[in-house]
Amino acid sequence: MPRVLLLSNTTGYQANAFKAAAERLGVSIALATDRCHVLEDPWGDGAIPVRFQEPQESAERIVDFARRYAFDGIVAIGDAPTMTAAFAAERLDLSYHPPHAVDACRNKWIARERFQAAGLAVPWFKRFPADHDSEITAAEVPYPCVLKPLGLSASRGVIRANNKQEFVAAFDRIAKLLEQADVRISKQDSTQWIQVESYIPGLEFALEGLVTNGALKVLALFDKPDPLEGPYFEETIYVTPSRISASDQQAIFDCAQAAVRALGLRHGPVHAEFRLNEQGPWVLEVAARPIGGLCAKALNFDGGEPLEELIVRHALGENVDHVRRERDASGVMMIPIPSAGVYEGVKNVDVAEKVEGIESVEITAKLGQKLVPLPEGASYLGFIFARGDTPEFVENALREAHSKLHFHISAELRVV
User: Fold this and answer.
1) pLDDT single digits (tens) 38-76
2) What kind of fold does domain 328-416 have according to CATH?
3) CA distance linking residue 242 with residue 220, whole number of Å
4) What is the CATH topology of the domain spanning 3-97?
5) How far is CA 96 from CA 25, 100, 326, 368, in A?
6) Residue 278: pLDDT band by 50, 70, 90 thresholds?
7) CA gap 2, 22 in Å, rounded
8) What are phi and psi of 286, to 5 degrees?
9) Are strands 48-50 and 358-363 parallel, antiparallel or unpaired?
């Protein structure tokens, strides 16, 4: 029986989807998760305990494990595990993205430099130490601009500034975010820098793909129909297939392939973000991982095959070039957090699920959970999934279902 190593921050819903996919395929799966190595299998799942903020040391632990239980493929979900996966794959001679490519994906400065060297369209960009004087820095940049932490993802800490006053406020706010313990632990050196780029106007898109020997196979191109113009850039709705022209789609595909080549990505899933305007496509970032959270449920392929099965087969070396996305349009809404507070519950989930085209409404927030919206936050209230004949139908269904939901968020933290 073939055996795949899955690296994941937790054994939550995304990891469980991969475990289920492996079972359906008759593939054995081993887990490597970020947990204490002192405890003896505290979750009872036989996982390899690693520390993703120490990727080389964690890779050595995986290599030691592989001396007893060999792997035939490797998959990482989420940004944090990708460096450990890259080092482990290199040592075990498994097909995966090389460490230098994964490092570039995780650092916006390195990525921009490689895109620029490859002749791709890039905005003006410059990085500044997080402890730099924001008043002085504000005089060195063009406006409007976008400030970004070098190592964070999912739009966390990304803020648009239209003038010096907004810049100073945004820079100081991001610097404070980078001092949070979870950020410093998870991102290490990249937490010392803030990148500033000139603002790129245009429509935004997300691309899901698989790379084989450096060649990109596009699995889906998602429209992001909600305007993402700032001051924050919270993603909400993804809908596929895209409604832009075939020529514009091909331009994005060509840009994506050039970006993959510039970064040096070789084998495995990629999730990329683009902007499109009259000058053509601009690559925002490329991640060496599949689409995050529950969003993969918006994608099915030939015969209803989920994305996780496709990725597992690809990790094992199967040729998946012939695979195509389902004919139906599909989409997902990542339910945004409207305000900070404590999650107290939601009403009308059953009503929302009865909206035509809606497949499911999945609330992932937990009762009593402290909610933090962007730009400091890094989570959603849940996900809404829809399918239908056209992208327009899917988008409308998602919006209607969302309008039915009524969330109760307490402004005060309760003392227990």
Assistant:
1) 444 444 556 899 999 999 999 999 999 999 999 999 999
2) D-amino Acid Aminotransferase; Chain A, domain 1 (3.30.470)
3) 8
4) Rossmann fold (3.40.50)
5) 20, 12, 26, 40
6) very high
7) 10
8) -130, 125
9) unpaired
